[in-house]
Automatic annotation (TrEMBL):
UniProt KW Transferase keyword: yes
InterPro entries noted in UniProt: Acyl_CoA_acyltransferase, GNAT_dom, N-term/lysine_N-AcTrnsfr
Name recorded for this polypeptide: GCN5-related N-acetyltransferase
Organism: Pyrolobus fumarii (strain DSM 11204 / 1A)
A molecular function GO annotation: N-acetyltransferase activity
Example of a GO biological process term: mitotic sister chromatid cohesion
Record keywords, A-Z: Transferase
All residue ranges annotated as the N-acetyltransferase domain in the record: 16-160
Matching PANTHER family: GCN5-RELATED N-ACETYLTRANSFERASE 10, CHLOROPLASTIC (PTHR42919:SF20), N-ALPHA-ACETYLTRANSFERASE (PTHR42919)
Length: 175
């Protein structure tokens, strides 16, 4: 368990705990999913991602309730996919997302992963700024990725020097 003390604003929690997401947390984590997205994953798909990311899923607990979560799916060859991440609107801009992201990166790197990737909606400018501020680089746009037809931006981050080398190509131009 990682304990992080944050003093970032009047509505933010003073003590944030980042710990493993377990089966008994799923329902409350799903509430965060529903509160966080205009188009949340269906419950069964949410549970499926949680199962795939077993051992690589974390929750942030603030004031006794789940404030956010992150789920990373491991692949062979040192690659991991952040398949889902959310912070409840109440705790956004309180460093909860940053604590979750740095914690999952630490966990992945210490378990031999070299590269992490994720995708987000092209129109989700807040998420895109967040990931870019944390060292992620946009490498591809996938048209029509989401079921409602929106494109996805794929981001990558090199966690450590691995078999893939150092250079990751960056998308140029306006997204």
């Amino acid at each position: 368990m990682l304990r992080v003390k944050l003093l970032t604003g009047r509505h933010c929690c003073e003590h944030l705990i980042v710990t493993e997401l377990r089966e008994e947390h799923l329902r409350e984590a799903y509430i965060v999913e529903v509160e966080s997205f205009e188009r949340p994953y269906p419950w069964e798909y949410f549970r499926f991602i949680a199962a795939l990311s077993s051992g690589y899923s974390l929750i942030a607990i603030c004031n006794g309730k789940i404030a956010g979560f992150v789920m990373a799916v491991p692949y062979e060859g040192g690659l991991a996919h952040i398949a889902n991440m959310a912070v409840t609107p109440e705790y956004r801009r309180c460093k909860v997302g940053s604590a979750l992201l740095s914690s999952i990166e630490y966990l992945l790197e210490n378990n031999g992963f070299s590269l992490v990737f994720l995708e987000t909606w092209v129109s989700n400018h807040a998420a895109r700024r967040f990931y870019e501020a944390h060292g992620y680089r946009a490498i591809r746009i996938i048209p029509g990725y989401y079921e409602w037809g929106e494109a996805a931006v794929v981001y990558v981050k090199l966690l450590r020097q691995g078999i893939i080398g150092r250079d990751v190509p960056v998308l140029s131009g306006s997204l």
